[in-house]
Amino acid sequence: MTPSAVLSTKCKKNTRLIMNRVPEPELMQNLEQVKAYAEADFSKSDDSFISRIDKYLFLKGKKLDSKSLIVDLGCGPGNITERLSRRWPFVEIIGFDGSEAMLAEARSRKNQGNCIDDFCNINYFCWDISSIANGLINVKRPADLIVSNSLLHHLHNANHFWKAIKPLSDKGSVHFHRDLRRPSSLNALIELQEIYLPDSPQVLINDYKASLQAAFTVAEVKAQLHSEGLDHLSVHELEDRYLEVVGTF
Predict the structure, then answer these.
(1) pTM
(2) Exposed/middle/buried for residue 103 (C-beta within 10 Å: 0-12, 13-18, 19+)
(3) What pLDDT, in 10s, does the model give residues 67-95?
(4) Domains in the chain, ordered, with CATH?
């Protein structure tokens, strides 16, 4: 899809272009897309995400042990799941994704590791968010830590996400969710792409632009949380392109 097909804008004379949200496909099944995403270097932002989770758990006095469970929603090819495994190798980790193509990549990467040391505490399942939200799938016990990275903007109905985290949680469950934040204008979107993906394959550039426009604003996420009775979770802007939703049940 070309950027012009993705971007929906309203133009006012002598002002910057203002974007509306345009959803993108919920699941990434195209093998070219999956390959480009899996091979992209997101290590800096991914490492930062794990570090922020670690610091938040410390501030909340939450300790994970061998009886704990971590759930990674929308795990994709396993970038975050693997980092969670390295940080907490003694904790059981479940990665959920609705795309079999993405999970095939994640399982392949897991199998390439040495299971004595790497990723042996990870299990991947092809479960989509709407099925969890509708109570069609149950985990064996509530999770101590539930995370997601760049999942929310993929969903056509974001409330499915907030409904889905409820049956996964119990009192004391910690939530840490990061996603892209929709820029205010087409110019700002292009600037972000040129900063963070200047020389990437075109398929990845197109997906990144589509994701930025499919993303929500902080105000929109606050409204979603309120409608689901989740006002105890807080949402804030992070850096120039992200928002975070954090809190404890």
Answers:
(1) 0.88
(2) buried
(3) 999 999 999 999 999 999 999 999 999 99
(4) 3-55+70-248 (3.40.50.150)
